[in-house]
UniProtKB/TrEMBL annotation:
Protein name as catalogued: Nuclear GTPase SLIP-GC
Statement: the UniProt record of this protein carries the keyword GTP-binding: yes
Known function: Nuclear GTPase found in germinal center B-cells, where it may inhibit function of the activation-induced cytidine deaminase AICDA. Reduces somatic hypermutation in B-cells which may enhance genome stability.
Pfam families noted in UniProt: Dynamin_N
Single GO MF annotation: GTP binding
Organism in which the protein naturally occurs: Saimiri boliviensis boliviensis (Bolivian squirrel monkey)
Protein's gene: NUGGC
Protein's cellular compartments: Nucleus speckle
Amino acid sequence: MAETKDVFGQEPHPVEDDFFEEPTRKRRKSDRDQRFRVFPSVEQSSLKEYEKLESRTRRVLSNTYQKLIQSVFLDDSVPNGVKYLINRLLALIEKPTSDPIYIGLFGSTGAGKSSLINAIIQQAMFLPVSGESICTSCIVQVSSGCCGQYEAKIHLLSDQAEELSNKLDPYIRMQRRDWDGEAAEMHIWPLIKHVEVTLPKSDLIPEGVVLVDIPGTGDFNSKRDEMWKKTIDKCSVIWVISDVERVSGGRAHEDLLNESIKACQRGLCRDVALVVTKTDKLHLPEYLRERKAGNQAIQSQREAVLERNEMIKLQRTRILKEKLERKLPADFKVLEASDLVYTVSAQEYWQQALLTEEETEIPKLREDIRKSLLVKKKRTVTKYVTEAFGLLLLTDSFNSTQKLPNEHLHVSDLWRFTEEKVELLEKAITQCFACMERPLKEGVRTARTSYRCILRACLVRSKGNQGFHQTLKAVCLKNGVYASRTLARIDLNEALTQPIYDQIDPVFASIFRTGKPAGLALMPHLDAFKYSLQEKMMEIGIRSGWKYDSCKKNFLIQEISAILGGLEDHILRRKRRIYESLTASIQSDLKLCYEEAAQITGKKACERMKDVIRRGVDRQVAEGMFERAQERMQHQFQQLKAGIVEKVKGSIASMLALASSQGDGLYKELADVGSEYKEMAKLHRSLREAAENARLRKGMQEFLLRASPRKAGPRRTPL
């Protein structure tokens, strides 16, 4: 493969000998059918329809790109409009089909995360499983038939699951010991941050889904701890994994739930569920003794397990929903989920001594995975085809022979209108972000009155300082944050700011929500701005002689949607930085305090470190530490507002300049892409048909599910 610069001196693109061939090769039908076999027949039909739309769209874009490149290939000077167009086409052609869906399995040591993944992928002992000991030592991603995210320095290959599992063992399992306490074998897990496993295409897990085994509540290694947080934030779905015997409480379980809810605030997560594992574990005599009298008699272990599972679902769903409602808006997507709690048993999935395969709820989790991928695929293809249609509208309009004598006048009118609407948008965003001021102030007031109690809870141990000295030193060396393999995660900065987060969380989530419009939400203001511009474009188009279905008017309407769509991605990326600005501010202000405490050694070092921390926090609070954190978060909001306004004005200015460039002012001999435009228009119309077909298939599938009989009892007797 050779590298060359494009005709515009932009970033180099890899170029092969068949440069003018279609960049994305068409998949063979057999490969496509193999990838879809994980889905039921009804969903297969819908996916094939959408993939066909995407494939044909890529082919149209590729043909258009080839024609334009050939038109300008030997020219020394290429107008900016054509440069913009060709680079946009190339970016869309090279755009990945869709980003993977990351499903994070987030749980404490021994909760059964690895066992659950093994059951879902149908490989009994693939990831290490070892009772109560700590097995998985680093973040492990498991996917089916899709490429990894990171560039690996170490590659392990095998066509047998057991052989690959043995090869992986030293990299992901903590060092095991023999009965005499000696090391059984050499493991190198401390050097490994991340492991990706790509399995062959599966009948159970669709391509494009990544299951992420996230160990514990962080890592004592600071770099791996930061990767731990980033991994959680990129997960669109989080399953909080809890052993049935630990689900009723405990600090570790609460910490996991809190971290998951924070991922909804700062990251990409839109769906949180509690997955209760090892539900086959039940001591029948003890259960019957504690069971309330008056209930229907229990005849077997199986009936007791099913009854207990149902009670867990009812109780934990209510508790989890209450917790989510305190932190998230009332109509946040996760609160509308039909299932917030799953009761699963990986052991019974394999043995089926007490429960059927369906009753282990492993198939139910797989079904939810498939549904998530199906929804994302439809949304991604719809956005892709719509954006491609806008580009073809623009390209075809460049060859229009229609002469508009007042063209520049109309564009100027549209630009003046845009400037007025941008001013209104800026005011609306200011009002939207102003909603944070009151909860921030209340949170700061609460933080000032409660910080000493919070600090005492973090620093005072009921069993004294024995063994805590080294832990506290590690906390100070890592600027207030330490994740131990044996103790609960310690984050002094986060603990001190928690009263502020308790106040701002519902408002913050409302501002950055997507989906349903709401009074506090940012996105509806951007949507209103988009619709006002599109209506103005329609009005000017009709008044100026652009026909109702003209390419120019349609291009402007489609392009404004693409601009605002890109802006939404920018906002989501900035959300995490804004949310974490409070803890980052506290950590920065206490940095010297932590450094001073970390240097203390000798007699009563632990108490002396605590004193330094207490005095340092007292001093910073007196000097306005919490108020500075508030100001820094508000500054982050102002920066986001300024960035939105700047991007909107710049993108629309470029769009209008491009739309007004026509005929001699653009390029005299631009390639004719009329046939590609007609094909793209046909594909765009097919989107509506595909959506309607999907709705009909869904209705039929729901009818068949309601009509199908349910199985009862295990399918196999115990061995």
